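Technical note accompanying the year-one report. For the benefit of new consortium partners, we illustrate the data format agreed upon in the data management plan: each record pairs a sequence with a structure-token string. No post-processing was applied to the example shown here.
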Amino acid sequence: MSCLAALTKFHEIYKAAFVERLGELPRCFTHGRPSPCLADDALAGSEEPQPWQMVPRREVAVFNNVSHAMDIELHHDIDDFYGHLFGGPLQFDSPWGEGELIQIWNEDDFVLLQQNILGHLMMKKQLKQPQTWFVGLIGDVDEMVSVNNADGTVWREVAGQEPHEQLAESLEAFLQQLKPRVAPPQYHQEPAATVNPHPGIFASLKRMWQNLTGR
């Protein structure tokens, strides 16, 4: 099974878990932002959490611009994980605790993600640490779930530090160990100066970056 197949399967299991437990689709706060994955009866402009479901992209999105900017070859799993689907944030339970996976809400969201990953890669280069890119958060102390770009292994990582605990040999293997967490949607408060808030977890990633850089 590929990373994309494992992610698609988790989306399907995630949706089924909400339908079985709550009788409805997963919901998230949209911050007024439209998305192809919003359900037909959703109201993008509402302040209330709205129902969503995974939708395949018509064209695959890639990270060639980030690779070019950093002059590195990014591990192919990054395109599989981020480039094929639109979806809301995925809350999970795992052998290592609760967490949340980043997913792409709309096209603008993908651009924001590229900027965040580029900033993360630049930080790793500046600190002379192994290159990683993130796919989510885990635990209650804002640790990242990151992928080692050299070999595709999955790790826990604190911003500004080297990864400290390997979670899986691959992103595919990591995804296969997750279980959907059926829980109320989380409202992620963005700093006041931020434009285009993300319905998922970029607020937490931004906070980690600000704590590291003092900005």
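Partners are asked to follow this layout when depositing records. The chain has six helices and eleven strands.
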